[in-house]
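Need residues for this backbone.
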């Protein structure tokens, strides 16, 4: 980039053109970084949602097993 700027800096319009090109390149790099960061955030959000769903299913299963256990204890109490 610097070589291009030095070559084109002899003329004022060429210098402005070079600076403009540098700004465009930097803006493109920032846009690519932003897109990458947004994609990573989306992936992490999906992973968190999946883990929350798994935790909910495990908790529901625990509640079902607890209810069955309490019913078994009640039946054993009635039998005694």
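Answer:
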């Amino acid at each position: 980039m610097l070589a291009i700027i030095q070559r084109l800096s002899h003329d004022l319009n060429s210098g402005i053109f070079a600076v403009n090109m540098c700004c465009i390149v930097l803006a493109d790099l920032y846009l690519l970084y932003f897109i990458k960061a947004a994609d990573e955030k989306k992936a992490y959000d999906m992973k968190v949602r999946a883990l929350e769903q798994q935790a909910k299913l495990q908790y529901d299963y625990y509640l079902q097993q607890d209810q069955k256990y309490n019913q078994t204890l009640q039946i054993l109490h009635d039998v005694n």
